[in-house]
Write a structure and sequence with these properties.
Layout lengths: L10 E4 L3 H12 L4 E5 L7 H4 L3 E2 L16 H6 L5 E3 L4 H13 L3 H15 L2 H9 L8 E11 L9 H8 L4 E5 H7 L7 E13 L2 H14 L3 E4 L2 E6 L5 E5 L2 E5 L1 E4 L5 H6 L8 E10 L9 E4 L4 E6 L2 E10 L8 H14 L9 E9 L6 E4 L6 E5 L5 H17 L17
Parallel strand pairs: 1-2, 1-12, 2-8, 4-16, 5-14, 12-19
Antiparallel strand pairs: 3-7, 5-7, 6-7, 9-10, 10-11, 13-16, 13-17, 14-15, 15-16, 18-19
The chain binds flavin-adenine dinucleotide.
Length: 419
């Protein structure tokens, strides 16, 4: 399916996840020749296993005011949505202190504005990118049903909901009857929900990424399958990408390698506080039931959705090294929680997956020129929100390279903030 050849193009992108692929599409639209390099086929890493939520209203970061109050519970209880490995604490503590310093109301409000800007029009942008692929049905309209169980009631006065309401998200509260009309297979203890309308969901995030990558290559983009070990800047201002099977040169270089972007910048002598925030999914290929929307269990912080491979339940944050073995206790806990939310679910032949979110302490990505390195651009660090932010990231990177003005204040995502 994919061409393999030496990159002879104006722009090289490392990473064929959803971010790199959307950068490729936007650059092609501006007439640039593009090469994408990845060690695997497109859409096989974080962009494969996520929950597929595409929300224009996703403007709530993790570093909310008062988040510190949850930390003792996360340390003690193994079944909480967030977990740490004690041996990671030396790496985690400096990151966590920056994360907590971002949790003031003023800072969170600025972060929410930036997120809102990066999510703007993302559904339309995906539909535009998918046009002509023949796989337009990989994205479907959806509501986002945030389910409350037991005695816990929705409160639109809560800070996180107010952030969305302030930014005009179409939100309403529904009771049990209406909820069960929307999603008849939810457990009996689901009493109410907050519904966000006007969303979409990917029915196979990995295939969505692959379909868009195929469009890049059918429109003249090159694909090179190679692992890039390190980068160097030559005296003539071009970059050498040192790969396993040989070296590649590039004048304009976009780093869209997700969490592994950290290793690439390290080879140029740079450091950034990007941490590996791992997540899991369990997928049930013969679920016996169908969900009509993306459904979030508010307490458990996981999202269930009907996908082309069955019902997928995705979530949890595990702060652990990229290459540490998966923690199967997280998988079992996700399976248990999903079954308790969807009692009719057939859990036979369950598949599990673990992937890595690249997370900065302010929950925003780094998008833009890397200071001190001419024609080197960062497009990484999208943490929990990369599916939603990918089309805007692609456009912004293409504008940087073409020298066009940006119609959005990009100060909060400047890579300089951490360099
Ligand atoms: C459980 C879970 C649920 C999520 N749910 C959602 C959601 O519902 N909505 C949402 O918006 N976001 C969600 N996310 C976040 C989203 O998945 C990520 O932000 C996004 O996929 C990041 O995309 P990426 O292209 O930056 O990285 P990746 O998809 O990880 O791609 C990076 C690519 O770079 C390649 N690469 C890396 N290093 C090298 C190298 N040295 N040489 C060659 N190739 C290299 C890799 O092979 C990979 O293909 C979720 C994440 C998780 C883990």
């Amino acid at each position: 399916m994919l061409k393999q050849q030496q990159p002879i193009s104006e722009v090289t992108i490392i990473g064929a996840g959803i971010i790199g692929v959307c950068c490729g599409l936007s650059l092609l639209e501006k007439g640039y020749s593009v090469t994408i390099i990845d060690r695997t086929d497109p859409g096989e890493a974080a962009s494969y296993g996520n929950a597929g939520v595409i929300s224009p209203w996703s403007c709530v970061p993790q570093c909310l005011p008062g988040v510190w109050k949850n930390i003792p519970g996360w340390l003690i209880d193994k079944n909480t949505p967030v977990s740490f490995r004690p041996r990671e604490l030396p790496t985690l503590l400096p990151w966590a202190s920056k994360f907590l310093s971002n949790s003031t109301k003023d800072k969170v409000n600025n972060i929410a504005n930036m997120m809102d800007g990066l999510m703007f029009n993302n559904i339309l942008a995906y539909r535009h990118h998918l046009k002509g692929t023949g796989q337009e049905d990989l994205l479907v309209d959806s509501w986002y049903i945030n389910v409350f169980r037991g005695k816990k009631n929705p409160n639109l006065e809560d800070y996180a909901w107010k952030l969305r309401i302030d930014r005009k998200a179409p939100i309403s509260v529904i009771g049990r009857e209406e909820l069960l009309n929307l999603e008849p297979h939810l457990s009996g203890d689901c009493q109410s929900a907050i519904v966000i309308k006007g969303q979409a969901r990917a029915v196979h995030p990995g295939n969505l990424c692959k379909a868009l990558a195929k469009k890049v290559f059918l429109n003249g983009g090159n694909f090179v399958k190679a692992n890039i070990d390190s980068l160097s800047l030559d005296t003539n201002g071009t970059y050498t990408l040192h790969g396993e099977g040989g070296n590649y040169t590039s004048k304009n270089l976009v780093l869209a390698a997700g969490i592994w972007s950290l290793d690439l910048i390290k080879s140029l002598g740079l450091k950034m506080p990007l941490i590996s925030e791992r997540g899991y999914h369990v997928e049930f290929p013969d679920p016996g039931i169908v969900l009509n929307n993306s459904v979030m269990d508010v307490a458990g912080k996981f999202v269930v959705s009907s996908m082309s491979g069955g019902i997928r339940s995705a979530g949890t944050s595990e702060f652990a090294q990229v290459n540490a073995p998966p923690n199967y206790a997280r998988v079992q806990s996700l399976e248990r929680l999903t079954k308790s939310l969807l009692p009719d679910l057939n859990t036979k032949n369950m598949k599990d997956w673990m992937g890595v979110r690249p997370s900065f302490p302010d929950n925003l990505p780094a998008i833009g020129s890397i200071p001190g390195f001419h024609n080197l651009y960062s497009a990484f660090g999208h943490s929990h929100y990369g599916m939603g932010m990918a089309p805007a990231t692609g456009k912004i990177i293409a504008n940087f390279i073409s020298g066009e003005s940006q119609n959005i204040n990009l100060n909060p995502v400047k890579p300089d903030r951490y360099l």
